[in-house]
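To start, an entry.
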Amino acid sequence: MVKIAPITAIHPSVQTLEILLAKLSDDKSQEYVSHRDLSLAPNPVHIDSNPAFYLYEFNKGTLLKSAIWALTDLALTPESVIKGHEQTLCNKVESIKNDRKNRSWEKSPVVMVHQPIAALEVLIDQIKQNIDPMEQPWNSLGHTIWKITDLKLIQEISDCIGKLEEIYVADGHHRLEAAYLGKTEEFQGISTLFVPWDAITISPFHRVINLDKALSSGSFLKEIEKYYFISVIPNNVPYRPDRKHRLGMYYQSVWYQLDLKSNTRELLSQPDSVVLQHKILAPVLGIDDPQTDERLNNVPDKNWSKMIEEIESNTDLIAFTLYQMDTVDFISHAKRASFLPPKSTYIEPKVPSGMMMNAVLPIKNNPTAHQQL
């Protein structure tokens, strides 16, 4: 059901790596890598002359997990097989689509989650035992890569992934939608990292709203009390929820804890991001379309400290903090094609920008050995 092909990797030069690693050292591992970044060095990259599959090993806490990097053939993989779980931001999709038209490379793969495959795990063990990992600076940062060129291994990996009836978009909804919109007869693939669902980690996105009009404190809290019990946080410390159906709220310089009422049975079956959107953001704050409303900012949990600093210095901001969705709920919603509001989940692994770049070429063609962007 899932058709994959070897990928044509782009290898940064030593000078380019220095630029990318400087971003990592500055705690900007997910920073946008622009064409300008890759042009600062005199010979920024070269394109590998030998398309291949790649095995990627990464840390999940104290454990080592593995994933396969390949090209997903969007022409031969039915759209119904690829399950998304979040709505996209319209302006971002359009920007990525235009960007894809004007360049011949992808900065990083989309991440697709799948059920664990025992036969694939056996192949991965064989690869680690029989093939030396690539020598590259990312190793010291906990990222190890093996290049797979053996045709028999490539076929066996293709067979394993090809038997999957469904794969789930963990990271890259916008890039995938843009790839479909910009698909042509010649260019029909997208760089993909295939990760078993027991290897992912899910964190929340929090919501920050920039008010464009004054709210009546009494009526605002009364609207929230229709669905949540409200309590003030002792000592007014920033509040991260510790369970599902519990939110934090920062409003008029006060931190609150919001607990979903148990008599709202229908809402108890919904993810927190959905309840928040439909019961507070839309009807109370007027955020009817989270895909386009510029008053709404979605902040990943990794940027918690920066978010707290920002909201506590601006009285026009309201913040809602959320608890992370678990993997079972994530897969369940993806299977049902039940789309969550944009930026409901922050799913790792996140591949450092620039580590897994690839040339956008016809799937059956080989590139020249060396080529500048």
